């Protein structure tokens, strides 16, 4: 984890923020920047500081790799995530498409947990993550995976400790976190709408 600059926040240390991900007029989301921002966001699980979050982080990274592998294999057909999906499905494969579905679920889980916590200043992180899990990933997880994720929810640090790790100036932390969550929510919403369309399914 990079060192937070004096007077800065954890968000100053990441390579790419979701607020920096270009969204075209037709809501096309730039694949390269999206993957960079998703990768950067996974390091937030390092800030949470428990090994219990490794499976959550690795799950996200595994799905990022599936999408990136397709992007590298067919760059001209993968400039936006939507193009990547539609062009992969034309080949009769759906490895990256399925990876993106799971990646969006993981990002939705992260966004909902952080949104719940930002909006409810008296609530502990574990409650926010547990609530978000129930509405995003849990319905899709097998009985083998559920306990692994439940262990992670229980291993979250106290709210005050987590926010302190994001930076000394809590006003700046709050502003940066709110900005990132709003940007993440927008991207997730666009992708969920797209993935619900018939031509984006296999």
UniProtKB/TrEMBL annotation:
Q: Which UniProt keywords apply?
A: Transport
DNA-binding found in the keyword field: no
Choose one Gene Ontology CC annotation of this protein and give it: cytosol
Q: What are the GO MF terms of this UniProt record?
A: ceramide 1-phosphate binding; ceramide 1-phosphate transfer activity
Keyword Signal among UniProt keywords: no
The family database entries (PANTHER family) matched by this protein are listed as: GLYCOLIPID TRANSFER PROTEIN-RELATED (PTHR10219), PLECKSTRIN HOMOLOGY DOMAIN-CONTAINING FAMILY A MEMBER 8 (PTHR10219:SF25)
| Alphabetical list of Pfam families matching this protein | GLTP
Q: Please report the organism this UniProt entry assigns to the protein.
A: Penicillium alfredii
Q: Where is the Glycolipid transfer protein domain?
A: 29-167
Protein name as it appears in the record:
Glycolipid transfer protein HET-C2
